[in-house]
């Protein structure tokens, strides 16, 4: 496989579970099973559906805005703002919320790619297997 270049405005998957504007740019659908890069915009007041990555860590770099990361597993909520990086360990139920009066723009995502979640939402076939 050769090097490729992708653009955030031409994603091959958008996932409403994450936000009204969650663009999957690098993910298994383009052949990237171990890396993942999403571009996500949350409008003021919008939040992710609380979710768990059972096999992946989630790392989110905040480009613009401010909000709160909710850790439902440990009953913690932490504020963040542009320039911060949010790290979610494997198995922690969480959600990102634009609950501070402004929207959020972020990049990042679970690593390796969250194949069980992608299968559950029908983004990749149930029998898909990462290459060795």
TrEMBL record:
**Domain of life of the native organism:** Bacteria
Q: Pfam families given for it? A: Cupin_2
Where the record annotates domain Cupin type-2, the positions are 39-98
Protein name according to UniProt = Cupin domain-containing protein
Give the organism the record lists: Bradyrhizobium canariense
């Amino acid at each position: 496989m050769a090097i490729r270049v992708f653009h955030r405005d031409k994603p091959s998957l958008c996932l409403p579970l994450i936000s009204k504007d969650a663009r999957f740019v690098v993910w298994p659908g383009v052949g990237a099973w171990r890396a993942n890069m999403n571009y996500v915009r949350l409008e003021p007041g919008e939040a992710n559906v609380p979710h768990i990555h059972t096999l992946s860590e989630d790392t989110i770099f905040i480009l613009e805005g401010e909000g709160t990361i909710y850790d439902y597993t440990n009953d913690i909520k932490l504020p963040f703002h542009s320039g911060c990086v949010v790290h979610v360990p494997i198995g922690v139920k969480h959600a990102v919320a634009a609950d501070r009066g402004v929207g959020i723009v972020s990049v990042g995502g679970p690593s390796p790619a969250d194949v069980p979640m992608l299968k559950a939402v029908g983004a990749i076939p149930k029998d898909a297997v990462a290459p060795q």
